[in-house]
Amino acid sequence: MNPSTTDSVLGPRVDNVDVKAVGTATPNAPGSKKQPTIIIIFGWLGAKMVTLCKYAEAYQKLFPSSAQIIVAADTLRYWKPPIAREKAVLPALKKLQELNVLSDDRSDDPPRILLHAMSNGGLMSLVDLARAIRKRDLKSPPGTKCAVILDSTPAPATLPLAVRAFTAGTRGLVKKGLLSLVLAVVYFLTWVFRTIARRPEAIAQAMAALNDPDILPFTSLRTPRMYLYSTADNIVPAQAVEEHAARARMVGFPVKMINFRKSSHVSHARDYPEKYWEGVREFWLEALAQ
């Protein structure tokens, strides 16, 4: 199975949009009961919608009965205050309400939800959405199932890792050096502001929130998660991912891990499409069986 190399099957794509709904759930289609009702893809910082739509295309091949929501994260998302980040994910919350995912009404066919967060930017968007839902005290139908995929995340936002992440696409030593200097200054000023205001660092806060069984109205200690990572990732080190997975196991979450070893940051699907998407398919079927 290699859905990541197919042509577009989702129609027109939209670039530079924070949230995009893709496809429509078809609950009565053959085999639909073994597929997610809704898949939410949380993109990494700076990922263009046209790039994230390639993941949606792969998912459409894998789970044709599923509706999808893509949540993009602009490059500056990390530096924005919580209220601005929450505003960016509100269209996704509205779409979930339209799909009756955020309703405590009983249903003969409760929703099945697959969350796919990419890098720390995707993790932030997931947690921002969770906070927006909790803030409004929204519920989900009894019996709702959920599974979480963490692709190239999480890792603490240290200065060296931040510099690697934000300069990854910059060419030329001079440009990269100047950008690194600017990032160091901004990082220091942000640290000073957080210290004075006594605000927690966003990624550290998101990493802790991820191990809260009740982070979303449809999650619990029984919610399985899968970490997709690589030893060769120099932005989110394998050790950081493995440490977070170990803490998740200690809390009581069912945890699965796939180390792609040689692929770079958020490149596992591109470099190992068969292994990647077969891993996703198997993980979802295992999640349904729990």
UniProtKB/TrEMBL annotation:
Compartment(s): Nucleus outer membrane
Keyword annotations: Membrane, Nucleus, Transmembrane, Transmembrane helix
Keyword Nucleus belongs to the record: yes
Keyword match Nucleus: yes
Sequence intervals crossing the membrane: 177-197
GO cellular component terms listed in the entry, alphabetical order: nuclear outer membrane
Membrane topology term: Single-pass membrane protein
One family name in Pfam for this protein: DUF829
InterPro entries in the cross-refs: AB_hydrolase_fold, DUF829_TMEM53
Family membership noted in the UniProt record: Belongs to the TMEM53 family.
Protein name per its UniProtKB record: DUF829-domain-containing protein
Organism expressing this protein natively: Lentinus tigrinus ALCF2SS1-6
Source organism phylogeny: Eukaryota, Fungi, Dikarya, Basidiomycota, Agaricomycotina
